[in-house]
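Thread: quick sanity check before group meeting

JM: Hey all, I'm pulling together slides for Thursday and realized we never actually wrote out the predicted structure for the chain we discussed last week. Dropping the sequence here so it's in one place. If anyone has concerns about the input, flag it before I start.
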Amino acid sequence: MWLLLVLSLAVALAWYHLHAPLPAGIREPRKLMLLDAVCKVVFHLAVLMERLGSGHHVLWIRQTSKHFEGTMKNLIKQGSAGVLRVSDVTFDGVPVRVYQPGACGEEGRPRRGLLYFHGGGWTFGSAKEGSYDENSRLMSNKLHMVLVSVEYRLFPEARFPTPYLDCLAAAKHFLSPGVLAKYNVDPCRVGVSGDSAGGNLAAAVAQEVAMDDSMRVKFSVQALIYPVVQALDFNTPSYVQNQAMPILNRPLMVHFWLQYLGADPSLKSRFLSNHQQSTMTPELMARVDWTSLLPPKYKDGYTTVAVHGKGARGAAREEVPGLRDVRAAPLLARTEVLSRCPRAYVMTCEYDVLRDDGLMYARRLRDAGVAVTSDHYEDGFHGCLSLTLRPFQFDVGVRALGRYIQWLNDNL
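JM (edit): ok, ran it. Output follows.
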């Protein structure tokens, strides 16, 4: 009986989400609807399985994703990424996957290096799976680059600041002269990159490394793909415009933040209405003020949702201490810190709740004197850079990946 219930639920959810309206700017709407339906069905089934005693729903989703990937690999043969040496090792106790390109006539010449942090809301994702692994192989070969993809700890096993500390430890290890020499990496050509939650970690680690005067080698570039960089305003124009978009909607992003910061899930409604701003200083709020940081085209027709004064249920700062921690929210960094960061590439998508996060961070970097390349995709949506493999390959993802690789080729 319960199996029939599960199947009925799956069919109902799939039917509903396949018929949910999408913006006209999305070029492959049916494919995106189907992908969203699959994600929603898997999530609801995972929650049901948890209630039936099958373990935490996050772990169930991870296992389901791994099985799905294995099935797709057996059914669909993806193109070869070329000859590589791939090794799973640890950097200062943190698991990483290292991609080293094969010989191409430049064996004695130092290579460029890239440290990559995957996305997934600090909850999902793996360097060893899906498009993260395939794209890393592609980039390592195409750019003749040593790429290190970090397996930082995830929720529910870990919360802030553990993922950040994992990434920072891996970064310091990779940037040490001895390790760079071991992998034949040019110390003047090392970058850090990440997407979504990984973009958050990349930006935070780039700031810390830039300010650490004890480190001889610094990152020369940072490449941030639709990064999440603040948790003080969930009513920016992009959060309002795209609050129900597939892949990453507004409530889900708040959910990810609460998990990451170890906050009570009951705070979701307060965060959605910006009550977490109640004890923040004007100086701090100015660093996330979209009315001054966004171009006019993105803020016209939208109004701020601001909360002032201590709420009746207590100050959000005491409930969630990490809210004002720059290691969790890089957009809150002081201008003096941003000014020491490496030149940047920031990719944003029109149909993404995190669009304005990326645009604001790019603006603050520019205002601090950092050279920034901004790539904005009018038909883009959150997660599209990871959607480059069949059966969920999107044209915008392929274009975005190509442009990202080209920027790294020209700047790293």
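AS: nice. The chain has two domains: 2-75, 85-230+326-411. The beta strands are 84-91, 94-101, 111-117, 145-150, 185-195, 221-225, 343-351, 372-381.
JM: adding both to the slides.
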